[in-house]
Hints:
The chain is built from 11 helices and 15 strands. It is of the alpha+beta class. It has a domain at 35-65 and 310-450: Cytochrome Bc1 Complex, Chain D, domain 2. Strand 3 (120-127) and strand 4 (130-132) form a beta hairpin.
Amino acid sequence: MEPxxxxxxxxxxxxFVATGLVMALFVAVVQIPSYSEDxxxxxxxxxxxxxxxxxxxxxxxxxxxxxxxxxDVGDPLFERSHVPLATHPGAGLGPLFNANSCVACHVRxxxxxxxxxxxxxxxxxxxxxxSKPVPNWGWQIQxxxxxGHEPEATVALRWEEEPQVxxxxxxxxxxxxxxxxxxxxxxxxxxxxxxxxxxxxIGLGLLEAIPEQxxxxxxxxxDQDGDGISGRPVWLDRGDGRRELGRFGWKAGTAxxxxxxxxxxxxxxxxxxxxxxxxxxxMAGQPADIPWEEVKAVTFYNQSLxxxxxxxxxxxxxxxxxxxxxxxxxxxxxxxxxxxxxxxPSLVVAAIRDQTIWPYTDLLVHxxxxxxxxxxxxxxxxxxxxxxxxxxxxxxLAQRVNGKAGYLHDGRARTVDEAIRWHGGxxxxxxxxxxxxxxxxxxxxxxxxQGL
Length: 452
């Protein structure tokens, strides 16, 4: 072979080898992403690889045998139907309540439904500068009662279609009517009513484990960067100068999974709980309805639920396009895609520690504009137009898990598209950009969201 030909072969051989090395590196980086970079594993080590209607009921992946055993203890307690007790006057369920079990509202651990008996009604009297609780009712209507008692009111819902601009489907709004024990409609012009559907319970232990500073780093209460988005933290006063960061509920009104559990027992079922492991007495010196061991078991059950893997792997082109559109619309400014969890060895589940998770929330509250202003500024913590950024993991399974589930705090949105079109206030610019998308781009974004 001529020397020039040999040189040509060598050059081609070197090019072939170099190309092979580049392709191997591409495969290593793109097709086999590192564990923390793989957004398909929404809950890190606690990701549940199941997208059936039972997906949200599954215990998290990565639990130890002991943790699975603890989870299994809490499962039937979460589903247990409570009844009045004969141990002392007023013991057990009620006398006024909204539901007799946790699962009655949190259908298969997913979203509740916008129907009486599976949702709550929050109320408040409007006054200058905010709201105040309604005399004799407080902040929440108790629409059921045990035998021998009358519920505060019966709930009836009216749905109204709101025409939109040409080419956009109508949106619907819900109106809450309250019917008193006398069978008459409650006429209180100054009393605002807000339907609240129960949110899904997935990934609560992981959200609880996001370091406080990580959440605060995303806050911009005074909009100092001038982007029109001013998420702020909700601080819960614990007395003696102590305060905790609210993370859970539609208004970020509770700081921990245990606190959320205790409030649900009391406010939704009329069940009292002890203040700690060494106390058995509660209101008016009476024994607690729920023993401490049960409080801890149900709390652990909620903390040890994971979140489902996304439908799309990172290699799928729908992911690149969906994430790009999500970012370009500035949705990710509030729906922060990923967080890291604490490495604290005291965290209740080992698999919670040091994980990269993809919940799509900043856990801050934002002013969502007049369309989502429900008139209920609860307990002075939030304005009536402020809402915590809802996590989006498991979004595409909402109506597979519960066919009657809707979106947003009151279930008014029948589709994800409707939920986006209700956004306003700080999210107004993102909504307008969404409305301006070409139809195929809008569908690409919705397709990706349905895969979360």
